[in-house]
């Protein structure tokens, strides 16, 4: 395998148990994501999607197994090495994580902070080249005319586009997105996902994105990885994949008809036993009452 063929992310037998947790958040997860691939993580709340994403840029440390991102063994990196890796991995979140009172442009500029020595307060504290780059990214996400507006005056969809522009300031090779459209309406959701896909194609970005919406995932991703209770239960390209197959991840159609019949028979048997016990109890109570009547003095 030549260096260019090397996967963007290689996860081997990853396990994670949070301190004090009753059970593991991830178990035996193995996954290889090629450069330029667009992968959707699907699964119910609590299935481990965020935990998996957070291991890719070293925000979590594995309990077992390894994660290699852009050829680097993530858990072994410290200090500058870890910062350098994170500099190549952009992250966008459900709640956008913008600084509301700051202007849109300033929010985008904060995406370049890891490349600068020391903090920056105000747009004019950033080098001109970075200001120009931030404006170009805002133009790309269709928000150039909003550059000097407060971030918290924008709609949810617009704020997520600002967050994308901010992530682009890092010139990332990988983009991680943790339910980026969970708080958006369907129209804004497809606009934001469409934009991510276009930008990923333009830049050859690798994208790993968790989503809740199966339809969106099917139309948007190249590949779907389904998680259930911390384990990979589906890993397939989206070509020809049906919604029913995907829904099995959620356990809604995971029970077959024969299993359902068996469960129903078991329930019917249990109901009969309860009924028989109740009948016996009633009979015993009647006998006691009868005995008491018989013993009463004439
Ligand atoms: N910091 C933490 N400490 C302890 N347990 C955690 C922590 N973060 C997550 N968990 C637990 O790990 C499991 C997986 O959580 P995770 O957030 O990765 O799931 P998720 O699929 O992203 O869920 P959601 O869709 O709700 O964001 C859950 O049982 C959760 O309660």
TrEMBL record:
The keyword Membrane applies. It holds the Pfam family ABC_tran. Keywords: ATP-binding, Cell membrane, Membrane, Nucleotide-binding, Translocase, Transport. Gene3D superfamilies: P-loop containing nucleotide triphosphate hydrolases. One of its GO terms (molecular function) is ATP hydrolysis activity. The keyword DNA damage does not apply. InterPro entries: AAA+_ATPase, ABC_transporter-like_ATP-bd, ABC_transporter-like_CS, ABC_transpr_PhnC, MetN_ABC_transporter-like, P-loop_NTPase. GO terms for cellular component: membrane. This is Phosphonate ABC transporter ATP-binding protein. It comes from Microbacterium sediminis. The lineage of its organism: Bacteria, Bacillati, Actinomycetota, Actinomycetes, Micrococcales.
């Amino acid at each position: 395998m030549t260096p260019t063929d090397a996967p963007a992310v290689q996860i081997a037998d990853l396990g994670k148990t949070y301190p004090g947790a009753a059970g593991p958040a991830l178990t035996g997860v193995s996954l290889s994501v090629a450069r330029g691939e667009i992968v959707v993580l699907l699964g119910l709340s609590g299935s481990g999607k965020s935990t998996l994403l957070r291991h890719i840029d070293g925000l979590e440390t594995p309990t077992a197994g390894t994660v290699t991102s852009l050829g680097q063994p993530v858990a072994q990196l410290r200090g500058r090495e870890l910062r350098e890796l994170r500099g190549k991995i952009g992250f966008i979140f459900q709640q956008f994580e913008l600084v509301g009172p700051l202007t849109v442009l300033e929010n985008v500029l904060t995406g370049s902070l890891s490349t600068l020595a020391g903090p920056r307060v105000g747009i004019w504290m950033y080098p001109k080249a970075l200001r120009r780059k931030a404006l170009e990214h805002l133009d790309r996400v269709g928000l150039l005319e909003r550059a000097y507006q407060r971030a918290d005056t924008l709609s949810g969809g617009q704020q997520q586009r600002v967050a994308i522009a901010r992530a682009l300031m890092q010139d990332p090779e990988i983009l991680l997105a943790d339910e980026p459209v969970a708080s958006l309406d369907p129209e804004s959701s497809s606009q934001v996902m469409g934009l991510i896909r276009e930008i990923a194609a333009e830049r050859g970005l690798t994208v790993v994105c968790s989503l809740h919406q199966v339809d969106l995932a099917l139309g948007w991703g190249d590949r779907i990885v389904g998680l259930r209770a911390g384990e990979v239960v589906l890993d397939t390209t989206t070509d020809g994949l049906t919604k029913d197959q995907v829904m099995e991840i959620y356990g809604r159609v995971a029970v077959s008809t024969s299993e359902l019949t068996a469960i129903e028979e078991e329930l019917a048997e249990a109901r009969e036993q309860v009924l028989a016990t109740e009948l016996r109890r009633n009979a015993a109570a009647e006998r006691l009452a009868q005995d008491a009547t018989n013993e009463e003095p004439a």
